[in-house]
Amino acid sequence: MSGPEQTAPDLPHDTSLAVWDLPSPAIAGRRATVKAGIACSSGCNLSGARIDVHNETGQRTGSGEAGSAPWPGTTSLYWVELDVAAPDMPGECAWTLRATASGPHAPATSMVRVVVAAAPQHRVTIAVTEKGSGGPVPGVDVRVGMFRGATGEAGIAQIDVPAGRFDVVACKIGYETLSSTIEVAGDIAVHLKAAPASEPEQPYWM
Amino acid sequence: MNRRRFLKDGVLGVGASALAGAAAQEAELSAQRVTKWDRVADVVIAGAGASGLCAAIMARDEGASVLVIDQNHDIGGHAMVSGGRIPLGGGTRLQKKFGVEDSADKVYLDHTNARNQELRFSDRDLVRVWADENAPTFDFLLDNGVKFDEVMPTLVNEGTVPRLFRTVPYSDDLNVTINGSPGSGLVRALEKSARAKGVEILLSHRLTRIVRESAASGRVQGITAEFQGKPVAIQARKGFIIATGGFTSNVAFRRMFDPRLTEEYQVAGEPWSRQPAEGEMLAMALGAALWGTSNVASEHGRTITKTRHIGARYGYENLRWNPGSPMFKQAGGSGLTVRTYQDVVCVNQFGRRFWNELDDTYGYLNACVGRQDDSETRGKLNGGGPIWAVFDADGVAREKWDPKPPNVDPNGWFFTAGTVAELARKIANPYQSKPMPPRALEETVAKYNSYVDAGKDPEFGRPGLMFKIQKPPFYAAWATPILHDALAGLRTSARSEVLDIRGQVIPGLYACGESAGGFALHGLPRVTVFGRIAGREAARVRT
Ligand SMILES: Cc1cc2nc3c(=O)[nH]c(=O)nc-3n(C[C@H](O)[C@H](O)[C@H](O)COP(=O)(O)OP(=O)(O)OC[C@H]3O[C@@H](n4cnc5c(N)ncnc54)[C@H](O)[C@@H]3O)c2cc1C
Ligand SMILES: [Zn+2]
Known about the structure:
The structure holds two protein chains of two kinds. Chain A has one helix at residues 3-6; strands at residues 15-20, 26-27, 31-40, 50-54, 60-65, 78-85, 91-100, 108-117, 122-130, 141-144, 147-150, 156-161, 164-171, 178-184, 188-194. Chain A is mostly beta strands. Chain A folds into two domains: 15-117, Immunoglobulins (Immunoglobulin-like, Sandwich), CATH 2.60.40; 122-194, Immunoglobulin-like. In chain A, strand 13 (164-171) and strand 14 form a beta hairpin. Chain A is elongated. By secondary structure, chain B is of the alpha/beta class. Chain B folds into two domains: 39-299 and 485-539, FAD/NAD(P)-binding domain (3-Layer(bba) Sandwich), CATH 3.50.50.60; 307-483, Succinate dehydrogenase/fumarate reductase flavoprotein, catalytic domain (Flavocytochrome C3, Chain A, domain 1), CATH 3.90.700. Chain B has helices at residues 3-32, 50-61, 77-80, 93-97, 104-110, 124-132, 134-143, 174-177, 183-196, 251-254, 278-285, 328-331, 362-369, 393-399, 420-426, 438-454, 524-539, and strands spanning 39-46, 66-69, 85-87, 164-166, 200-202, 205-214, 217-227, 230-242, 266-267, 290-291, 304-305, 309-310, 336-337, 345-347, 388-392, 414-417, 474-478, 482-483, 489-490, 497-499, 505-511. In chain B, the strands form six sheets. In chain B, strands 1, 2, 5, 6, 7, 8, 20 and 21 form an eight-stranded mixed β-sheet that branches. In chain B, strand 6 and strand 7 (217-227) form a beta hairpin. In chain B, helix 2 runs parallel beside helix 9 and helix 2 runs parallel beside helix 17. Chains A and B meet through strand 1, strand 3, strand 8 and strand 13 of A and helix 14, helix 15 and helix 16 of B. The structure holds flavin-adenine dinucleotide (FAD) and zinc ion (ZN). The site of flavin-adenine dinucleotide has 44 residues of chain B, from helix 2, helix 3, strand 3, strand 6 and helix 17.
């Protein structure tokens, strides 16, 4: 860790937040989990930093303390999984996350927009097969409106949604992106045929 | 100002500087006059790349003594690391072998179609001789030991007849092929043949001057080169051929055609081989003209290209530096090959998105090299500055990238951080003129993520939004467009003689390869044909 020695002790260290695995969408009236981490630009150990979530009215809706091990792949992002109460009504809202750490650290804040949806009542089962061979295609990212999922080994994704009309988008590297529109009034099965995408043509000029 | 005073000063001023100019020129000329030649050959060639080697062999075949210099420590130029794809037709031996019927006329007509947006600005007199020399040049390559992949040729360049064959890499030794590219099969075979036929090649010799009887008239008599800091004077009894490969590496020169192409744009083929435009500049000092200059900015062809391998300095789509290459240390990294730009956002040096990242047209490139920020109205106004691809851990997983050296170059071309703000703070690169504001990058990513939620990008209309950029670690990878072709150059006659700005031949001076202009055709088919023509014509000069 190089920072603390290089920065005068009375100057605050810059800190910043990452917020991820945010529910997208969050479900109205339920609890949701979200991960948040704080980093100091001098690389200080910020385990124990407190991270709070506030809703638009300033009410605290979740809180926790950063753990002792940095997030994998980072040297000094100290993080915690927070349990947050989602609003009661569908719509869009903004959550403010605020992290406070001890020592010379300025607090960090971050605002995230969260989409809140009504509780899903119906299950959309999406089967993706390969055009031509007919075999299942695993690992396809699927989106039904704002609800997301991915196909498993059997090429099937199950995504729960409320009633309504949704755009379905399915994509995987190596295949053409598929899109269609469905009307959901009950449980529904959708079959998508994915055509392998021709590799981007190797241009002759090389 | 007092008018009399102005006149007096003005007249005096002009007179004085004109005198000084003439005297200086005279002094310079006598200092430059070569009194003793260190070397002599009938035909002297600068540049041992694709065009220079063809010129050398052809001149030798015509009976001339030939000396080639190259500034690099090895032969090959850009062609060494090229794809070796050589669409020459007109009825080559290999076309015949695959039952393809072709003719010089068909070649001519295919390359002069007014609908072809890339080729329509070409000088059709040049295209005509090029078409006539297509088949003889391809067969010449075969005769000089160049090996092609013998599969049915394919159609290219909006042509109507299959013409594309590709050379095979010369060997599997990276010290010989430099990066294992098929182009090594072209230049190494030509080098071998040239040496066997008695062509002499002087490496690490840089062309520094073209010597002419007098600055504005007379024959070109030879050149001077620099070797280990010392001048070497080389007499060319019949002719001197410029085959130095174009201007892509010369910022001031390339900006004559497109002022946006400032220093941040790297060049495909570097760091192996540079095209610094010295041949062109020395010829222009003798009054040579440029030709076909609009080809550079026609927005067709490959003057400037979208990066395919990000996170390293040289990300040209068809040249991925191999960690085993003897050039790898200078190249710095191979780059992460982008399978789909859906996995990244591209931001400018201010941390802002500026275009639909999925666009592969000149629309995207124009946005990259264009003005990037409304509040920047002074300072470095040209060029678009660095472009960074920003992505997250999920993007890495989807692309199956391993974001570590040797795949990326953390020395200014690739950065990692735990938060988006930290990422912005870490970006430091010679072309990033100011720090990227962390807030701006945070806002950009947050806004983009909200577009993913909404399924719609109201700013740039990027379609099919699927993935947020949210999971640490975060990455920023150099994704600035990279330059490729020099599509304009010196004006030449159909015999590859260099013409001056009045259209007169400069006797004894020839140009070929990317240093010659007037024909927007990319790469090897153009440069091999005119290399052969230049070598033949120079050798046939009677002295
Ligand atoms: C990555 C890559 C892939 C490519 N793939 C293809 C392809 O598949 N098909 C195709 O048709 N084209 C391709 N090209 C283009 C093709 O390689 C070039 O158009 C061709 O090599 C140009 O030939 P040239 O002889 O003009 O220049 P070069 O081959 O670049 O040779 C010029 C030589 O001149 C030397 N030189 C420069 N200045 C001086 C000086 N002052 N004094 C002495 N020597 C000097 C250089 O060191 C160099 O060796 C590719 C290019 C690149 C970079
Ligand atoms: Zn700190």
